[in-house]
Amino acid sequence: MSAITIFGKGNMGQSIGDVFKQGGNQVSFIDSADPVENLGSIVVLAVPYNAALSIAKANQAALAGKIVIDITNPLNFETWDELVVPADSSAAAQIAALLPDSKVIKGFNTTFAATLQSRKVGDQAQTTVMAAGDDADAKQAFADALTDSGVAFVDAGSLKRARELESFGFLQMTLAAGEKIGWTGGFGVLK
């Protein structure tokens, strides 16, 4: 069992919290007005990209030694036509640069809140959480926290793979926003 702190109480934050609770973990939430204290060993940034950057900048000491899961897809929400990070980087890489003493993992960005709640992508596949990060022990702790949660876990590789996960998440979001797929659908990983 892990102690998990989630920044953000929106749809994604609540759905991620539910997944972790089903996995037998202790979950607490922090919103923008709450003090940042008593953080769990795993911290989830379930907030928009700019808010995640602000949290990282303001809480470097509090997040030191923690596994920090970045769920953001850094879209340009004015145009819905591009990511706002350089093509050779990612939101997760930028957060990792701000948190050199944390173990940053990209995760949950290729799932929708509805697919986390149902544990299924449409009627076809179990919801799969893909994770990219450079610390193997941190990724294993993340995977362990998802055991018995009803979702599958796939190690997508090093933190460099975060940019592909963010592109994948971007495509999925634009398809849903364009009503080409539903918010209960998306991409599934079949083994």
Automatic annotation (TrEMBL):
Annotated signal peptide: none
InterPro entries, per the entry: NAD(P)-bd_dom_sf, STEAP_metalloreductase
Family annotation (SUPFAM superfamilies): NAD(P)-binding Rossmann-fold domains
UniProt cross-references to Gene3D superfamilies, sorted A to Z: NAD(P)-binding Rossmann-like Domain (3.40.50.720)
Name of the featured protein: NADPH-dependent F420 reductase
Species: Levilactobacillus tongjiangensis
